[in-house]
Amino acid sequence: MHNQIDFIYINPYYYTQIQHIMEEMQDRQLNEKESLELISRMIRNTQERMEEGSGTMFLIWGYTTVIVTMAVWVMIMRTGDYVWQWLWFLLPVCAGIMTMIHYKKQGKKPHVSTYVDKVINYIWVVLGITGFLLSVVSILYRLPLLFIIVLIMGIGTTLTGLVINFRPLVIAGVLGMILSTVLILRMPYTMMLQIFSLIFLIMMVIPGHYLNYKSRKRNV
Amino acid sequence: MFKELDPLLLSELRLAVMSILISVEEADFVYLKEKTNATAGNLSVQIDKLQQAGYIDVRKTFKGKRPQTICKVTFKGIHAFEKYIEALKSYINIQNH
Question: Among A112, A116, B7, B73, who pairs with B77 as Cys (CB 3.0-4.6 Å)?
């Protein structure tokens, strides 16, 4: 005589199948009206988003430009040696590293990217490449580089403002583009540097802070 | 006349996922879960179904050390969604008359 143990053995494959069926049952079917309501609610949900810290990119690049420009100005004033112009290359390096850190920090949040995000990214990548190429060319050929850089950044700021529908940014960008023409005038290089950093303060730092303030307020 | 409704989009969660993906470039699993208030299990089942139907593209990557699932709507998905809306309209119109 032997004891037989009865047990039900559920094959793991069937187990997952059963789980799927149960999850399927949880999923409600909608009628036409509910469908339309759901669609519009979900679309509205994605549109009502103004990323907190939208202005941070402007702050990173704006402040770095102001600080590096001031450093170049101080060193040229003190030494009179234009070799300090090489300090300019600190700008893309420092701001680039900070940009990467910023993206890494943002990576912890749920990821979503809209068409607007994509358009803005492309605008700045293309303008960034243009600015970098012109800076390299200006080592070999004389170019009114400060004027060109302000003009390019003004274009980027204006376009960003137009795409995200944020008027202060459009105004700052257009103002930057207009002010850039001052830099074609004949004046000492050190004075040009001061005007250059002042324009960046007006064009990027101030609207950057304002944009951050607005997005924080909206998301509270 | 009633147009036939796509059974894949009749489900609440699948329709929610499609509506979100229609309006963004791409979104990850965590974002979809947050916006739809679904359970992870249910959401992943429905995402699988949409992927099998060719309505969405699913890309699995890593964000640092954590795995990340990024979803993006396909042309087929956009087409199916538009057809679904058209069909819904035909229902609503008939009800109003």
Answer: B73
